[in-house]
Amino acid sequence: MAKFTNKIAISAIAAFILIQTVVPFSEAALTANYYDQTCPQAENIIFQTVGNASIFDPKVPARLLRMFFHDCFIRGCDASLLLDSTLGNKAEKDGPPNISIRSFYVIDDAKRKLEKACPQTVSCADVLAIAARDVVAMSKGPWWNALKGRKDGRVSVANETINLPSPFSNTSTLIQSFNKRGLGIKDLVALSGGHTLGFSHCSSFSARLHNFSTEHVTDPSINSEFVINLTKKCPVKNKDHNAGEFLDSTSSVFDNDYYKRISMGKGVFGSDQALYGDYRTKSIVDSFAKDEKLFFREFVTSMVKLGNVGVIENGEVRVKCSIVN
């Protein structure tokens, strides 16, 4: 979740801008029963749509979880990531860190069904939040009451996506980035556990394997056997653009394997492995690696907090998620 799967590198300048940008933590009142009277079938419609899509394409859970994080981190949880670019504006989904995001069709499909059942009632932002909860639960992770009542934003700017955390960020940059969004160190470590689902292409970690620094060819924090494995999949002159590595050994199951691998030096992203090399986060990684139930509890708490970031009250309920009304 802070560095969710298949991320594309941002520059050092972008990382600097990242820590300057503030997305306020919202005080808007969200409730678990927001649609009980106006659209009681909403969660069932979303669950069935996401479930069917996940059976057809096993990559859907990781993609939707990443989509939720990327939406909330820019302008807050307002579904701005779902908007298409227009002639006069390049939208978030076409920004460099988001061009590898897929499966927007799942949210669009759920929204079409909701419009038939309850016209102009369920926001796209809520659809995405509920879908993110559902894919975690479907992957054998925890389930929680998703809070609802968000409105959809009307603004989406591609340039703002440089403020997304990078797979090359150090822990201090990540802590500052999360703090700007009202999220603490434990939230950072817990949400990073979202990487238990998914896959990354070589471009997001190959810099750790080849010419890492003037002193080291490879990142010294990587397990020596793991380096060999990664280098075989991502050689110096890699011509396979689909090549990469799963972010943990049980990539379709939501569990705590991600933390176990980090503790062994087998984090795929540099930003993941950095969590184990920093005294502020190492003990939390160890605690989650030892206690999966603890990780689940903290992940739920942090997901609820993330879902409150930048929630707007003066937005709209889009009829179609890709365009404003």
> From the coordinates shown, what is the CATH architecture of the largest domain?
Orthogonal Bundle
Query: Approximately what portion of the residues adopt beta-strand conformation?
Result: under 5%
Order of helices and strands: HHHHHHHEHEHHHH
Q: Order of strands side by side in the largest beta sheet?
A: 1-2
Q: Write down the overall mean pLDDT.
A: 90
What's the total count of β strands? 2
Number of domains: 2
From the spread of the alpha carbons, the general shape counts as globular
Total helix count? 12
Work out the radius of gyration. Answer: 19 Å
Provide the helix percentage: 40-55%
Identify the CATH class of the largest domain: Mainly Alpha
Largest sheet: 2 strands, antiparallel
Structure write-up:
There is one protein chain. The chain has about 325 residues and is mostly helical. It is globular. It folds into 2 domains: about 15-165, Peroxidase, domain 1; about 170-305, Peroxidase, domain 2. It starts with 11 loop residues before the first helix and ends in a 19-residue tail after the last helix. About 40% of the residues lie in helices and about 0% in strands. Strands 1-2 form a two-stranded antiparallel ribbon. It contains 12 helices and 2 strands. The model is unreliable at about 1-20 (pLDDT under 50).
